[in-house]
């Protein structure tokens, strides 16, 4: 486990990030976007990740030099809770590396960023076709609405 490292995505990581996204789509872990090319939205993604004001954040997990997973997030606002939260848009770990603390490390990076941004929590709504993550300190909804809601309070 000591070999896993999570870093924030840099411009030089974009090809790696896109390859991981493609793997996620290919493995059926995320509904396919029909009618869109793989390169569609790349300019917008680059702007959101790197041009102020930042509108998206992403992290890549590596085992040595090999990229084995990623997480991506944007900021949302809750009227009910009257505050900002970091919305996890996607979380993917290669099947050969699941259950080895990679998911937890990606979520820790997202949670740290959420705290730095003044967000009250990290939230993720994943389709019920995915197995729910078991994350210490997270509350997970029952999935009656068609999604499982993961909410991790930040240390503010």
State the major sheet.
7 strands, mixed
**Helix segment count?**
3
Distance between the termini: 29 Å
Q: What is the CATH level 1 assignment of the domain at 4-111?
A: Alpha Beta
Number of strands: 7
Provide the helix percentage.
10-25%
Strand content: 25-35%
Average pLDDT, all residues: 80
**Which regions are unreliable across 5 or more consecutive residues at pLDDT < 50?**
143-148
* Sheet with the most strands: spatial strand order: 1-2-3-4-5-7-6
In one word, what is the shape?
A: globular
CATH topology term of the domain at 4-111:
Aminopeptidase
Which CATH architecture of the domain at 4-111 would you pick? 3-Layer(aba) Sandwich
Radius of gyration: 15 Å
Can you identify the CATH superfamily of the domain at 4-111? Gcn5-related N-acetyltransferase (GNAT)
| Order of helix and strand elements from N to C terminus | EHHEEEHEEE
Structural class by SSE content: alpha+beta
Polypeptide structure, described:
It is built from three helices and seven strands. A seven-stranded mixed sheet has the order 1-2-3-4-5-7-6, sandwiched between helices. It is 24% helix and 33% strand. With 156 residues, the chain is of the alpha+beta class. It has helices at residues 14-26, 42-50, 102-116, and strands at 4-8, 57-63, 66-78, 83-93, 121-127, 139-140, 147-153.
């Amino acid at each position: 486990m000591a070999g896993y490292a999570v870093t924030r995505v840099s411009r030089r990581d974009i090809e790696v990030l896109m390859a991981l996204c493609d793997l996620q789509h290919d493995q059926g872990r995320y509904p396919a976007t029909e009618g869109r090319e793989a390169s569609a939205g790349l300019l917008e993604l680059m702007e959101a990740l790197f041009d102020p004001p930042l509108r998206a954040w992403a992290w890549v997990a590596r085992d040595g030099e090999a990229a084995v997973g990623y997480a991506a997030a944007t900021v949302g606002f809750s009227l009910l809770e009257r505050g900002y939260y970091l919305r996890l848009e996607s979380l993917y770990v290669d099947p050969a590396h699941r259950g080895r603390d990679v998911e937890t490390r990606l979520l820790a990076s997202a949670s740290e960023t959420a705290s730095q941004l003044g967000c009250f929590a990290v939230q993720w709504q994943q389709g019920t076709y995915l197995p729910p993550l078991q994350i210490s300190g997270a509350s997970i909804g029952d999935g009656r609405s068609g999604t499982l809601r993961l909410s991790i309070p930040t240390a503010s």
